[in-house]
Amino acid sequence: MSEPRSPASGDFEYDDDNDADFEDSRDYEDRESDEDSDLGSEGEPHGKEEYTGIKEQMYQDKLAQLKKQLQQLRDSSHPEYNKKMKKIDSAFKERLRLNELWREVEIECVERDYQAEKKLAAREFDEKKKELKENLLIELEDKKKLIEQERYTLELTGDSMEYKPVSTRKLRRRGNEPAPIVEKRRKPVATTLQLLLEDKEVDEDLKLINKSKLMSMKKSTVTITQTEPVSNEPKIENGKLYFDRKWFHKGQAVTVECKDGTRFNAILTVAGADMIMVRKLPDNIRLKITLAQLAHGKYLVRRRSTS
Both 70 and 95 in a single domain? Predict the structure, then answer.
């Protein structure tokens, strides 16, 4: 018999692109070994060497391929690497774009909040300034009214304390009479008074002084009415004011003239025992006028037509 060929002597070749051929060769080798085990045992060592060579060749090819890919990675020329780098770069640029948009939105929100806070602060400043101005005006008006009231009080007390010199007749001296001896009067020692009274007590004293003055004025008016049938002194009877030979009743429209030349329209609201109360128009400020002020010409009351 002739010597059989070894199944590994070149019946198949390794192809890197098709592993199925290698598997078919293995199946064929198994079948040949079953049919002729004796003959196949003689060529088995040679087949193992061939298989080992193929595996070594596959390893070397794979290693060379990996080295080639490694070199491509080092040179940044690997196709898969470049493909993924493009994706990463695109995601990076997109993220930068979104961050820039977010930054612009945040800046716009902050700017809007800043403008709103600025307007609110300006409005609060204007309100506080207006409130402060109104409070100062009210305080100054109160001080002005207090000063005017004190001035009227001083005028009333000054009128009652006026000194009226007594008129004396000088007679001619006879020739035989000696010259009169002029008596030297000592100057009164000025003493300082310290008033320790409260405001209420001072007001009560002023009221008493005014009442005494009015009583003296009433007595003088009674004596004048007894001697003179017609009088021009201001007076109040039955809730009516008599001034400048005219009667004024409550609620009548009048014109008040001041000593400094100013005048204003008013309504007579109260006619008491020794004073009248008028209400200025149109600010509705009440003003108290005493009979003494009318008598001294500090105020003049005139009738005013309502038409």
Answer: no
